[in-house]
Write a structure and sequence with these properties.
Chitinase A, domain 3
Length: 158
């Protein structure tokens, strides 16, 4: 049985929009490929091969997104009130530096450190260790660099 993917409403909508973008690209590359095939002679045509590879790459991306979306269960807000859970937005403080970060705990398919607030996976070291914590709790986690960091949950915003 396929594994369920739990997504926030925003994450689900973002993945659907990404799927639509890829589907439009597929339509465009299909037209280009048809034009190249009609104008191609029997000799080696690298443009035609490039177009075929691009079409295959786009079809793979579409299949992956369709797979994730077909297994998706949309969660509304945080799953557990007062505790860090999938969908929670929280403020973490690095106890060594005093620096604070606002993060949202999301499914791996939604994770992005480039967004504000940062979206960290519930399967990442920090995300998985933060699950179940309450405001005021501290926890230690080994980050990918091998360093052990200690964080304090300053607040849970939702």
């Amino acid at each position: 049985m396929a594994r369920e993917v739990r997504l926030t409403k925003e994450g689900y909508q973002r993945l659907k929009a990404e799927l639509e973008k890829w589907q439009k690209k597929l339509e465009e590359i299909t037209v280009i490929l048809q034009e190249l095939m009609e104008s191609s002679d029997d000799y080696d045509d690298s443009g035609l091969e490039d177009a075929k590879r691009e079409k295959a790459r786009i079809e793979t991306a579409i299949a992956q997104l369709e797979d994730v979306l077909s297994r998706a269960t949309v969660i509304e807000g945080a799953e557990a009130k007062g505790k860090v859970a999938l969908g929670s937005t929280l403020v973490l403080q690095d106890t060594a530096t005093g620096e604070s970060y606002e993060v949202r705990i999301v499914a791996p398919a939604e994770a992005s450190v480039l967004e504000d607030p940062m979206k960290i996976s519930d399967e990442s070291p920090v995300g998985s260790t933060a699950l179940g914590k309450r405001a005021g709790d501290t926890f230690k986690v080994e980050v990918p660099t091998g360093e052990v960091k200690e964080y304090r949950v300053l607040s849970i915003l939702e």
